[in-house]
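Give me the fold.
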Amino acid sequence: MAQRPAQIAWRRFRRHGPAMAGLVYATVCVLVAILGYLISPDHTTHANLQVLELAKLPPGTQARLLMVPQPDVPAVSWLRRWWQGQPQQFLPIPLDDASGLVIRGDFLCFVNRQGQADSVRLSRFGAGPYRLQALEDTRVERRRFVLGTDTYGRDLLSRILLGSRVSLSIGLMAVLLSLAIGLFMGSLAGYFGGWVDQVIMWLVSVMWSIPTLLMALAISFVLGRGFWQLFVAIGISMWVEVARIVRGQMMSLREQPFTEAARALGFRAWRIMFRHVLPNVTSPIIVIAVANFGAAVLIESGLSFLGIGVEVPIPTWGRMIYEGYTYIVFENGKWLAFFPGLALIMLIVSINLIGIGLRDALDVKLANR
């Protein structure tokens, strides 16, 4: 029984070990981005729970926290918690590891992490009666910061996990936008030719002469800061590669017998382009889309590093690298830039490995060997 081209390509892709490794890591990143707040240690919006007393804790550090309830915190549905996180329900106060809690009158007394005596009104914990053991069991927790904390005392692991959502979503939207523009412009240039081809290719040459990061930077200045502004800026700056490939494929296929037969049957040019010709150029389009996805993630991180990405405090890998790169040489805090940089590098490498595997799997010449 003859196999379909997609089945043949998948079989050849599975034999490519590095590509499969990249696919596994990219799949894990996608799952992490989808789950988001449900798996991050910090469930607050943007993982922005700041505890300045715990700033720049090394990876693996444990801290003992007194969780003081916040008044009038609205309840949120699980859907909103999954998408946007939940409001801060507790005010964490770092405690000294060797000291306990003491009730004195209307106050709960303790020794904070700096070794200073401090207290909180018992009424903050709700209506009485108040029992010391119950407070210690329910309001004191020991939290481990697996990857440490940043300069504001925020959990670095939570922000890296949520940063994957920003990078992947912006990369995906930018690639879809660049594909839409590139397919349209390349199809027009390749099918009609003549002055249409000359005008579009002149525009492509102008866009090609400007570095992609510089183009995205200029568009970001015009559109402003924000999520949709960022993926629009990246998508507009990346469509030229798609257009050139589609144009070349369209020019080679427009004189084929099946396109001439479609014209003889009276089909319109738009139908011939998008219903008959474009389905035959999916292989190079898939390869260039994967390559552009990795480039879009890298450009997004670069713009965030320069301070032109999404608005603070939304966590992005580029912004985290910017906030921590000064500590690599001068101060203790090398993990602040190392872990988000490692996550970014591994994602880009995995995407490139997937692109190489797809290129080999979809190459007809290699398949016939």
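The mean pLDDT is 87.
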